[in-house]
Amino acid sequence: MGLHIEIPCESIMESIADGVFTVDREWTVTFFNRAAEEITGVPRDEAVGRKCWEVFRSSICDGSCALEHSIHNDRTLSNKSIFILRPDGSKVSVSISASPLRNEAGEIVGGVETFRDITAIKLMRQKLEGLYTLEDIITKSQSLIRVLQILPQIAASDSTVLILGESGTGKELFARALHNLSRFRKGPFTAVNCGALPDTLLESELFGYKAGAFTDAKTDKPGRFHAAQDGTILLDEIGDMPLPLQVKILRVLQERTYEPLGSVKSISTNARVIAATNRDLQALVEQGRFRDDLFYRLNVVQLRLPPLRERPEDIPLLISHFINRHNCLTGKSIQGVSEDVFQMLLRHPFPGNVRELENIIEYAFILCQDGYIQAEHLPENLHPREEPRLSRGRRCTLRDIKYAAAVEAVQRHKGKKMAACRELDISKDTLRRILSGGAQADE
Length: 443
Hints:
This protein is 40% helix and 18% strand. By secondary structure, the protein is α/β, with parallel strands linked by helices.
């Protein structure tokens, strides 16, 4: 007779490489294996007895929980890709499977979820696809890759950084990446939009105030520089900062001190300063609207982010990235965009840059329930325009229509003919030929 050894179920769960946890019907964690500890960074003693969303803080804990869906519908869900947030703030990509958990009587008493770290797989796929990633930034654009390659060295210094780029190019994303890669990463990251507040409010927001500094100042209130102590402060849209306040920012950069409103005592700050703007600061200096000494003090290290229209190779990549993100956030399984939508997005000039593209995908997710995003799921402004009307009384020929469309496209792109060519999906030679032909009626 062979020897029969019964191995406890928990011992098996401890020996596998996948993370495993179970919950009861109140969503309290009842089991948490060794691999779950390693992947999440949460010790078992801290996980067991807590609500599962307090442990995982995943991308689907806000209403699209796979485990809840599995228990509610009494079915198993497999290989759903999400990300979880570790206690140190880092994101981990995982693939999860969830099933109801039953007692001996067959009654559902909770749920079990297994998950595996797929970060290495994602990185390998990105490498094979020729992508360059850093923090939450992904690109194929050589101009942006050059910026990303020097970002760690810049982050390692304490120098002030000036980030230039149009609205929506991701200036705050790059500022956060600099913070996360720097020695200040354990401190807070604080962002202030210098163009969003009136002059007097902006000063008190940055430096705080003492009780009695003005009529409604009943108690002391610390400002954003105080909140950013031991961390990083981003002065966004600094090109809109009023001249009197620029003097005080210059003092902070030179002496590392500031004074709250109503105070005569200086306060020291060690916060690293990153500034960002979509304005041409050099032109503002020449116009007397920005201090030249502050500009040179800010411009120690300059990062210039190219607009999305100058890196069209990133559009397909970003479409896929945002669809994957919103699939995780909404629990949907949108497969991609249809071919006509893809062509529409490639031709679009994206004046709002990456932020505009993400907003378009988010809008489409509201209307599209499954399958592929179609043209009817896009915002109205992306739908094909009606052809421009010609002068009354003239016959409309194909040459007229082409000419009018070409002129309008060039005007929309402020004379940039390559951008007009991308929108019209024609070559530069074809555009030149259409424009030189003129809008002449057939005889």
